[in-house]
Amino acid sequence: xxxxxxxxxxxxxxxxxxxxxxxxxxxxxxxxxxxxxxxxxxxxxxxxxxxxxxxxxxxxxxxxxxxxxxxxxxxxxxxxxxxxxxxxxxxxxxxxxxxxxxxxxxxxxxxxxxxxxxxxxxxxxxxxxxxxxxxxxxxxxxxxxxxxxxxxxxxxxxxxxxxxxxxxxxxxxxxxxxxxxxxxxxxxxxxxxxxxxxxxxxxxxxxxxxxxxxxxxxxxxxxxxxxxxxxxxxxxxxxxx
Length: 241
What we know:
Blueprint: H1 5-39, H2 48-74, E1 85-86, H3 94-106, E2 112-115, E3 129-132, E4 136-140, E5 146-150, E6 154-161, E7 170-176, E8 180-185, H4 188-199, H5 211-224, H6 226-239
Parallel strand pairs: 1-5
Antiparallel strand pairs: 2-3, 3-4, 4-5, 6-7, 7-8
Helix pairs in contact: 1-2, 5-6
């Protein structure tokens, strides 16, 4: 029996998670072997400080093994009936939302499908991914979770370039009724292209403004005074009605 869209993505995420865990365990074994070769003559089993280092190392290895087992357990099977969905607005059951998403995808109604990182042709993409459907904007977190944001809950989407007081980044900001969702990238032009693609289907009510400055101003206004943000949004939306 063929898999639907979300099941296919769950299978892909599971496969990626398993590869990451196996790769991490191989790396861990290699590092431990290297440490043993380099430091086997330095440890004195009768020395309390050496014993303490060994205990800490054993605890670290144990924690990593437990994390690996948990990760593999979560990736043991394909998520069905929307089990891998996160619904921040609780607008319906996971099964009902999954059915809607799968139906639109099967009908070829995927409007935008982009990874937040830019990859050269031939390179296998990974990490967070944004998929726009007629009903939902989906954020695949690069692991096992898919956040489904209803289209009618979205106010504005923009590529925010830079970070005040911090390192240089670019992030896709998704302003919604409830919160601002963030998908962080590294290639400015690529994230801006994603934002421009989405603008074709979700009208940009703030197109008359410079998004670089406005993104920070609205981010602060959204956090400090939600009612004022909504008044400004409705005013700009009304100009384009």
